[in-house]
Write a structure and sequence with these properties.
Layout lengths: L1 H7 L1 H23 L4 E5 L3 E8 L11 H21 L6 H24 L2 E7 L2 E3 L1 H32 L1
Antiparallel strand pairs: 1-2, 2-3, 3-4
Helix pairs in contact: 2-4, 3-4, 4-5
Length: 162
């Protein structure tokens, strides 16, 4: 019976495993840059440790409670969406949502345990970390997939009219 449940929940197990791996990679990258600063390409691309007390786009400076609550709410909404729309979601969308959740958890860990989020890469003086990249890539992919889906639906509608 347990094996049956595991087989039925294979997708959930893979998503959880992917999230754990991505969060671990993010946390390791942040830990490795402590006390280091290294130019990769000139001074434009650097490995550097910066502590960010802000939320997304500089909002909510020094407001850990709001940051934590907002992240938990967003993660909860995404998880609820994944559960309720399970039959409608394809693999690509699961990947995008997994990236978003992993990135949110990676930065949430920093904010809860340190009070700030560690940024470990800087490109043209814009600091970010792997969690940030995961979230941005996840949201862009999600928007792209929804746009493609909408275009396909529109084209199907137009084909039926003709």
């Amino acid at each position: 019976m347990l094996l049956e449940k595991i087989k039925n929940n294979r997708k959930i197990i893979l998503i959880i495993l992917a999230i754990i791996i991505l969060v671990i990679v993010d946390q390791i990258a942040k830990a490795l840059v402590v006390g280091q600063e290294k130019n990769i390409i000139n001074e434009n691309i650097k490995i550097v440790k910066m502590d960010s007390y802000n939320g997304a786009f500089g909002m909510g400076q020094n407001d850990t409670v709001t940051f934590v609550i907002a992240n938990i709410v967003v993660i909860g909404i995404i998880l609820k969406f994944m559960k309720t729309q399970e039959s409608q979601i394809d693999k690509k969308t699961y990947i995008a949502l997994t990236f978003i959740i992993a990135g949110a958890i990676g930065n949430l860990i920093d904010k809860i345990f340190k009070g700030y989020v560690v940024k470990c890469i800087s490109i043209y003086s814009i600091p970010f970390n792997i969690a940030d990249v995961l979230m941005i890539v996840g949201w862009v992919l999600l928007a792209l997939f929804f746009a493609i889906h909408t275009i396909k639906l529109k084209n199907k509608k137009e084909d039926k009219i003709e």
